[in-house]
Amino acid sequence: MAYIKAFPTITKFEVTPTETAGHGDLGFDRGNYTLAAKLPDGTEINDQGSFLSVFRRGTDGSWKHSRVMWRSNLPVPTAAPATKAPATKAR
């Protein structure tokens, strides 16, 4: 349950397909996405990138995701510099 509480709350998610195609029982779409979310500490984050989704037609005729990949276009955030603990005297 702690994992779910730490998960960001998605406040905006937009997908813009740029290509959709398929053959037989396989199909795919690819395109771009934008995402906004709020972390449990209140920090807001934004992301944008590209995606590829592969669909497979089931025996009932419905199309379901088989694979999904995405890649952010933004650089990986750098970690805050570590703070040094005060030096202690040797005994």
> Quick one: how many beta strands?
4
What is the CATH class? Alpha Beta
Q: How large is the count of helical segments?
A: 1
What's the arrangement of strands in the largest beta sheet?
Answer: 1-2-3-4
Q: Give the integer mean of the pLDDT values.
A: 89
Reported by name, the CATH topology is Nuclear Transport Factor 2, Chain: A
Cα end-to-end separation:
45 Å
Rg from Cα: 21 Å
* CATH architecture call: Roll
Number of domains: 1
| H and E string | HEEEE
Task: List the quaternary state of the chains.
Answer: single chain
Q: Which term fits the overall shape?
A: elongated
Could you tell me the strand content as a percent range? Answer: over 45%
Helix percentage range: under 10%
Main beta sheet: strand number and arrangement? 4 strands, antiparallel
By secondary-structure content and strand pairing, the structural class works out as: mainly beta
Description:
The protein is mainly beta. It has one domain: Nuclear Transport Factor 2, Chain: A. Helices cover 5% and strands 57% of the residues. The chain is built from one helix and four strands. It has one helix at residues 2-6; strands at 9-23, 26-38, 44-57, 63-72. It has a four-stranded antiparallel β-sheet, with no helix packed on it. Strand 1 (9-23) and strand 2 (26-38) form a beta hairpin. The radius of gyration is 21 Å and the shape is elongated. The mean pLDDT is 89.
